[in-house]
Amino acid sequence: MGRPFGIPIYVSPTWFIVAIVITVMFEPQVAQHVQRPVSYLVALTYAVLLYASVLVHEIGHSVVARCFGLPVRAITLHILGGVSEIEEEPRTPGREFLVAAAGPVLSLGLAVGGYAALLLVPMPDVTVLLIEALTLANLIVGVFNLLPGLPLDGGRLVRAAIWKITGRRRTATVAAGWAGRVVAVTVLILGAALSATGGGDRWLTVIWAALVASFIWVGAGEAIRVARIRDRIPLLNARALARRAVSVAQDTPLAEAVRRAQEAGAGAIVVVGRDDDPVGIVSETAVIATPEHRRPWVDTASLTRTLDPGMILSADITGEDLVAAVNRVPASEYLLVEPTGEMYGVLVAQDLAKTFARA
User: Fold this and answer.
1) Mean pLDDT taken over the chain
2) Do 109 and 130 belong to one domain?
3) pTM score of the predicted model
4) In this structure, are 265 and 155 located in the same domain?
5) Tens-digit pLDDT profile for residues 287-327
6) Catalytic residue selected from 58, 96, 284, 333
7) Binding site residues, as ranges?
8) 3-state SS of the chain?
């Protein structure tokens, strides 16, 4: 879609569904001021401008994050609004607060700007309707995002405050996550209550409330799970997770390589070149998928993933550094080497994932 401030913008296909729904629902109001089919064009313009304001909200988060040196992968607009894919967490509660506050501040600023325009600038009736709707929408977006529970911005503000008071990020995240679950249940109850007193669109109210509540509940639960995972990160140790490995030449039949690994009690096979330097790691998945009767005629090289520089890690790497290295170059296996350059073993990403799965 574009790269404002150098940040890639993506639009999910679900956005087009919402755009159609918004256009159809808003068009009857527009039709009171202009004739069809112009009314549909104006209603569609409202849908586009509404999501443009959501984009402004997300750009606020992303720009402030980048000011603090946090990498931003992209901004994606979807059925429930938008999300800024910030790759790292702020390292202080103050920065967390500012990154979280930037979005709602811009949304509320757009609402104030729209209200001021309505008061000060003469406009045609249809333009007044459009500005009124956008002003109200930005007010709702700003206020809703300030609700005090993760994954909403208000939840991040709560987390920043508790983090500042207690000095414990995990405690703050868990508290804000449970607050998010309370917010999710509240949204669902309010949606049901409104539908009970509403008119013909009551089922739409229930469906929308259920979608929003589900989004908040899942996001809150994920925040709590990630907080528990973060407790384990300092305990991660590449040496402790490593599998013993055997080295074989590139033209070694797979059956022979597997036999050597079994005899040595190794859980990984590393392919070496003519100078005995590692050149790749045999994919465990590919080995399992190869029938035993074919293994004598399959060279290990054909099942080997070439070692990129990012796949060679120090055997001494631990904690956050280990997680960052794995995230930087995603792979199924990594070669671990001693400070002297000698091979220590192989770290299998699945083994690392199992450590987190127990959180």
Assistant:
1) 92
2) yes
3) 0.74
4) no
5) 999 999 999 999 998 999 999 999 999 999 999 899 889 98
6) 58
7) 57, 61, 153
8) CECHHHCCEEECCHHHHHHHHHHHHHHHHHCCCCCCCHHHHHHHHHHHHHHHHHHHHHHHHHHHHHHCCCCEEEEEEECCEEEEEECCCCCCHHHHHHHHHHHHHHHHHHHHHHHHHHHHCCCCHHHHHHHHHHHHHHHHHHHHHCCCCCCCHHHHHHHHHHHHHHCCHHHHHHHHHHHHHHHHHHHHHHHHHHHHHCCCCHHHHHHHHHHHHHHHHHHHHHHHHHHHHHHHHHHCEHHHHCECEEEEECCCEHHHHHHHHHHHCCCEEEEECCCCCEEEEECHHHHHHCCHHHHHHCEHHHHEEECCHHHEEECCCEHHHHHHHHHHCCCCEEEEECCCCCEEEEEEHHHHHHHHHCC
Tens of pLDDT, residue by residue over 154-212, are 999 999 999 999 999 999 999 999 999 999 999 999 988 887 776 556 777 888 889 89
| Same domain (yes/no): 266, 301 | yes
Q: Which residues are annotated as a binding site for Zn(2+)?
A: 57, 61, 153
Domain count for the chain, please give it: 3
Residues 225 and 243 in one domain: no
Highest mean pLDDT among 5-9, 197-201, 268-272: 268-272
Catalytic site includes residue 58: yes
